[in-house]
Amino acid sequence: MGPATQDRVGVIVAELVALNLGEEDRLAVLATAVAAVASTHHARHKQVYLEAVRTWALEISASVASPPVGFAATADDGMVEEGAEIVVRGLAGLLDTVARGSAWLQDRLVLELALFAQLLGRYDANAVHQILRAVSDALGGEDYRPGRAVRVPLADMAMPLSRDVCLATVAPRGVA
């Protein structure tokens, strides 16, 4: 990304910080934004798109070595949806700028991936996996609508399992 694009990404991040959301809500904002873009612009290849976002984000996450995300009280879905709208609107502005320069489709895709990878890469690998698993689950639902809050169930990972639980029914809890 060039300096002008990097500056615009900084504006998007500053607007998100201004919402004063907790960590879990910020993850939900990112999940909601990724789901909206995947369902709107990559409907035929959602899973391929999500895998590309995952790969790029994990590369950044590994280089940053972020600590695990802590649990916090969550805001209402309206705040999460507002934060996702900031990201989606910011991405649309970046893409409009690129389109004015007669960019190719792959340039637009690289810009999307770079933005989401930068935002997601600030978190540890487990959080990245959980965010994208929540996105995938939301997109698989028949009642999903772009912009609807996608919650990342981090608290579920902390709940202990009993000896009687059927492991086949337990959602994955991160990576080892």
Present the secondary structure layout.
Layout: H1 3-18, H2 23-41, H3 46-64, H4 77-100, H5 105-120, H6 125-140, H7 154-158
Helix pairs in contact: 1-4, 2-4, 2-6, 3-5, 3-6, 4-5
Short structural description:
The chain is mainly alpha-helical and 176 residues long.
What would your notes on this structure say?
- By secondary structure, the protein is mostly helical.
- It has one domain.
- Helix content is 65%, strand content 0%.
- The protein has 7 helices and no strands.
- It is globular, with a radius of gyration of 16 Å.
- The two termini are 32 Å apart.
- The mean pLDDT is 79.
Please give the count of helices: 7
Q: How would you sum up the global shape?
A: globular
Contiguous low-pLDDT stretches (5 residues minimum) are: none
Oligomer: single chain
**Which percent bin holds the helix content?**
55-70%
User: What is the beta-strand fraction?
Assistant: under 5%
Mean pLDDT across all residues, rounded?
A: 79
Order of helices and strands: HHHHHHH
- Structural class comes to mainly alpha
> How many domain regions?
1
Cα Rg: 16 Å
User: Quick one: biggest sheet?
Assistant: none
- By DSSP, the count of extended strands is 0
Task: For the record, give the distance between the C-alpha atoms at the N and C termini, rounded to a whole number.
Answer: 32 Å
Descriptors:
single chain; 176 residues; mainly alpha; globular
